[in-house]
């Protein structure tokens, strides 16, 4: 056979295209026809493709399952307390993954300077109720005339405490609303003074480890509800025309507490004085309140803010100082608003003996009050029993004409009626906006509640503040509805009724955040910072919401552990270069309750700096994406503050040993410690499962810390 013929036969025995099944059978199938394949036959016998296919299918299934879990069910971090209780004070993140912005490389040219974390220690136990700007020791340095020493007197920069204000021993979560209206834990506000001083007036009483609030008051021993019904017979409280009220000298705020059921939101205030913690009791009950006093400065509210003002034996000398205090009430009272006075000197002919004052003295006081009211052009509507009601005019047409006869007080000239941050009171009437006719309401007529909430406020409709249009307002309202919906996907507790009660919006703008929460059982203190470019607090009040001015370089006029949730929208960018970031964060820690939540919206670079400070406060932090896109520079920083660190108590070594033993036990059982009185205790023999992800900022439960030398 020729050489060419043999080559042809050999090529014919080798297939031109090797089929797929050919390779699959090389491990044990029929042998190839060509002798060429004998060179590779041992290799093919060692290859088995079945395991490779199974592994590929398993990896694909795992990948798809991971995507489904990420989009579907949210991941929950559960923490176990030292008390052996699981807690619901965790954050749930559904479609909002938490982001890691920690530095994993060095950069020589970085425009974000991140300082080293400073460790903050616990303040001494005596600071558990510390109110920096109403500190009793510091206030004694100031003038006692007209109670000026009880106004805000904030510490200088060198006097600021750089420590974490502790909770009192035995602190527990407040009762959820509405149960909190009628009860509070004694350990949270450990003061019995009011139970003794006001025992016969039915303000408050002790029942075991709780305070009970029967709803009584100095002028309503039968209860606040019955007292409010008496007022309702004099002026309309249920038709929606009265929405915002101010209670001067509020006591434990029972009047404001019982008005809530009538959809009337009351700003209650009282000084920090010999009646220990009356405002603190109000806030513990879940009722809006602030520390405040009528002395020499204006109240921190805009003009034309309240539909109704109230004084029930509030001990304010309305007839003195040329009627300045009543003039200030006139400033914050809306056109057509009501002023209610009960107690001395009203009904003095019947009550003078019980008040231990002379008839002549009481008669002269009432005459002086009525003279001041007439000089303000108020009309006395009714006086029935212990209650008298005056009404402010709807405009100042007649009042200005009367100045030809009534020489004092005159109308203020060239004055900003809404300026109220350390602004001195004046003995002049704040003029109402001009009107075209005698029946027109100055500043514009407000809608009745609840239409008032979403209607364009008259201030915006009239072009004040500058640059804000009705369309801007409507867009802001819709924006915050959207943002709140996103918040509820990030923080599952926002969906739980009763989890939050007292909320604070640190930069409220138009009050959109509070308006979006209107159907939830919460109230929001809307703050317009003094550093804001536009004063919008008057707009907030025209929506039927409440709020105050505040400089966040200073402490707020409230007690520690006031709020369940803080919302800080661009606050730190606003105060950049004005004061230290750590001072704002320490104040936030002071006023936030244990297991409270913080939401910070800001530029990502600012949030990284905030995190560097909170690390020193023993908080664990995470950042979440913006609701619109992960490409937005604005992000969210979310906080859950666990049990407040206990104060250092060197005189109680046994208690210290117990805390240390408790902490040691916790460290063995869980990396994160949190507690709640509403969850059943876990089994002591079952270790908690380790969380797969840390999805929020949480403050560790470091029970015993050394005392701060600066405190």
TrEMBL record:
GO terms for biological process: methylation. It is an enzyme of class 2 (transferase). Keywords: Glycoprotein, Membrane, Methyltransferase, Signal-anchor, Transferase, Transmembrane, Transmembrane helix. It is a single-pass type II membrane protein. GO terms for molecular function: methyltransferase activity. The chain crosses the membrane at residues 47-68. InterPro entries: Put_SAM_MeTrfase, SAM-dependent_MTases_sf. Residues 656-666 have a biased composition (Basic and acidic residues). Its EC number is 2.1.1.-. GO terms for cellular component: endoplasmic reticulum membrane; endosome; trans-Golgi network. Residues 667-678 have a biased composition (Polar residues). The keyword Transferase applies. SUPFAM superfamilies: S-adenosyl-L-methionine-dependent methyltransferases. Residues 654-690 are annotated as: Disordered. It is found in: Endoplasmic reticulum membrane; Membrane. Belongs to the methyltransferase superfamily. This is Methyltransferase.
């Amino acid at each position: 056979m020729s050489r060419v013929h043999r080559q042809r036969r050999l090529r014919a025995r080798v297939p031109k295209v090797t089929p797929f099944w050919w390779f699959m059978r090389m491990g044990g199938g029929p042998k190839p026809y060509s002798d060429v394949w004998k060179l590779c036959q041992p290799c093919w016998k060692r290859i088995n493709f079945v395991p490779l296919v199974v592994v590929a299918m398993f990896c694909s299934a795992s990948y798809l399952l991971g995507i489904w879990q990420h989009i579907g069910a949210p991941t929950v971090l559960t923490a176990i307390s030292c008390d052996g209780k699981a807690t619901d004070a965790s954050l749930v993140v559904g479609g909002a993954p938490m982001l890691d912005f920690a530095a994993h490389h060095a950069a020589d040219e970085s425009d974000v300077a991140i300082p080293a974390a400073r460790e903050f220690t616990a303040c001494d136990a005596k600071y558990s109720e510390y109110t920096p700007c109403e500190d009793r020791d510091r206030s004694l340095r100031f003038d006692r005339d007209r109670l000026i020493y009880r106004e805000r007197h904030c510490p200088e920069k060198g006097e600021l405490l750089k420590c974490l204000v502790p909770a009192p021993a035995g602190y527990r979560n407040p009762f959820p609303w509405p149960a909190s209206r009628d009860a509070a834990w004694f350990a949270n506000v450990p003061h019995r003074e009011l139970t003794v001083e006001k025992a016969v007036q039915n303000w408050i009483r002790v029942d075991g480890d709780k305070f009970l609030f029967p709803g009584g008051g100095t002028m309503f021993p039968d209860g606040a509800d019955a007292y409010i019904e008496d007022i309702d017979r004099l002026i309309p409280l249920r038709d929606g025309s009265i929405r915002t009220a101010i209670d001067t000298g509020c006591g434990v705020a029972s009047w404001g507490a019982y008005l809530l059921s009538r959809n009337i939101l009351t700003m209650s205030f009282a000084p920090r004085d010999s009646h220990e913690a009356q405002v603190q009791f109000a806030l513990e009950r879940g009722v809006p309140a602030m520390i405040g006093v009528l002395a020499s400065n204006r109240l921190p509210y805009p003009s034309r803010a309240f539909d109704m003002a109230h004084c029930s034996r509030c001990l304010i000398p309305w007839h003195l100082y040329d009627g300045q205090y009543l003039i200030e009430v006139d400033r914050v009272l809306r056109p057509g608003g009501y002023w209610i006075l009960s107690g001395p000197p009203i009904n003095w002919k019947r009550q003078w003996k019980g008040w231990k004052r002379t008839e002549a003295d009481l008669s002269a006081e009432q005459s002086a009050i009525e003279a001041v009211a007439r000089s303000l052009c108020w009309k006395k509507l009714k006086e029935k029993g212990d209650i008298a009601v005056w009404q402010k005019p709807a405009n100042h047409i007649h009042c200005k004409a009367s100045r030809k006869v009534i020489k004092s007080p005159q109308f203020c000239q060239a004055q900003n009626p809404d300026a109220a941050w350390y602004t001195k009171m004046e003995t002049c009437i704040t003029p109402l906006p001009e009107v075209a006719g005698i029946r027109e309401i100055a500043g514009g007529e407000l809608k009745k509640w609840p239409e008032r909430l979403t209607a364009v406020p008259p201030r915006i409709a009239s072009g004040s503040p500058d640059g804000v249009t009705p369309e801007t307002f409507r867009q802001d309202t819709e924006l915050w509805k959207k943002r709140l919906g996103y918040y509820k996907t990030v923080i599952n507790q926002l969906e739980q009724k009763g989890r939050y009660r007292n909320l604070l919006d640190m930069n409220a703008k138009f009050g959109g955040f509070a308006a979006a929460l209107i159907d939830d059982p919460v109230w929001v203190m809307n703050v317009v910072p003094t550093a804001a470019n536009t004063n919008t607090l008057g707009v907030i009040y025209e929506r039927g919401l409440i709020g105050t001015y505040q400089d966040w370089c200073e402490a707020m006029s409230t007690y520690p552990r006031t709020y369940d949730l803080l919302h800080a929208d661009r606050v730190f960018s606003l105060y950049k270069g004005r004061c230290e970031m750590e001072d704002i964060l320490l104040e936030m820690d002071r006023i936030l309750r244990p297991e409270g939540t913080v939401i910070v919206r800001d530029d990502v670079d600012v949030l990284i700096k905030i995190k560097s400070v909170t690390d020193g406060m023993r908080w664990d932090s995470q950042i979440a994406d913006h609701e619109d896109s992960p490409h937005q520079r604005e992000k969210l920083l979310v906080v859950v503050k666990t049990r407040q660190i206990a104060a250092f108590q060197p005189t109680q070594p046994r208690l210290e040993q117990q805390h240390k033993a408790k902490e040691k036990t916790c460290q063995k059982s869980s990396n994160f410690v949190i507690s709640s009185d509403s969850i059943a205790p876990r089994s002591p023999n079952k270790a908690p499962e380790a969380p797969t992800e840390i999805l929020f900022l949480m403050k560790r439960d470091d029970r015993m810390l050394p005392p701060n030398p600066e405190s």
